[in-house]
UniProtKB/TrEMBL annotation:
Name recorded for this polypeptide: (S)-2-haloacid dehalogenase
Function: Catalyzes the hydrolytic dehalogenation of small (S)-2-haloalkanoic acids to yield the corresponding (R)-2-hydroxyalkanoic acids.
Species: Neptunomonas japonica JAMM 1380
GO terms of molecular function: (S)-2-haloacid dehalogenase activity
Pfam families: Hydrolase
Gene3D superfamilies per record: HAD superfamily/HAD-like, Putative phosphatase, domain 2
Length: 227
């Protein structure tokens, strides 16, 4: 039976810090710190909305997080510049290993899906721009059930949409909270440790597999699965 793969999008297939060049033009050396704050708050707002059952699309979390980052870093960014940044965020680049890693997957052995906090339309736009969409069977968005990762309900929804079960399903993500969420739900999970500085939370679970890129993800999962 083929193994079902749930590829996280933001931070795993797509580089959420892909606007550093544009940010440097606006704020110079503060760009990386600003980008970090923007991403951290984006995720925090999604967690809050999920817990409060006060859902708004991920793009709204992104917009609110940008406003916070501007205030936190005391950066004077005009309304037009914010609009431009949000427009560019909708066109973030893929990581260099994304297309090759997906292309190497044998569809007799794997059933690869995109699984994201973003809406289906937003994710499809990103994946089409990079050419990654052609290697995926479908896009599963949490927007369909109005919640966010790591709510157990979103992993259950993924299994329903992909017609898979926990034992045959893997999450692939660079986000530790996502990996922990999938493991807690009962799926297997590969953590993509994209930088040496990346840390995994001190939790009662550990990733089924740790990789540093997507280049050999299929081969590594088969090895871990004893296939």
């Amino acid at each position: 039976m083929a193994i079902t793969l749930a590829f996280d999008v933001y931070g795993t297939l797509i580089n959420t810090h892909g606007l550093l060049t544009q940010l440097k033009e606006l704020m110079g050396d503060s760009a990386q710190s600003f980008s970090d704050t923007w991403r951290e708050k984006q995720l925090e707002y999604s967690f809050r909305r999920s817990l409060m059952r006060s859902y708004l699309p991920f793009s709204e979390c992104t917009r609110s997080a940008l406003e916070y980052a501007c205030k936190s870093h005391r950066v004077d960014v005009s309304a037009e510049q914010k609009f431009q940044l949000l427009s560019l965020y909708a066109e973030l680049p893929a990581f260099q290993d994304t297309q090759h890693g997906l292309a190497m997957l044998n569809h007799e052995q794997f059933r690869p899906y995109a699984f994201s906090n973003g809406t289906e339309a937003a994710v499809r736009k990103l994946l089409q721009a990079s050419g990654a969409d052609q290697y995926l069977l479908d896009i599963v968005s949490v927007d369909d059930i109005k919640s966010f990762k790591p709510d157990p309900a979103v992993y259950e929804y993924f299994l329903q949409r992909s017609a898979s079960d926990k034992k045959q399903s893997w999450l692939i993500s660079s986000n530790p909270f996502d990996v922990i969420g999938a493991l807690n739900f009962g799926m297997k999970a590969a953590w993509v440790k994209r930088t040496d500085a990346a840390l995994f939370d001190d939790w009662e679970v550990t990733p089924t597999l740790i990789v540093d890129s997507l280049e050999r993800i299929g081969e590594q999962i088969l090895q871990e699965s004893g296939v």
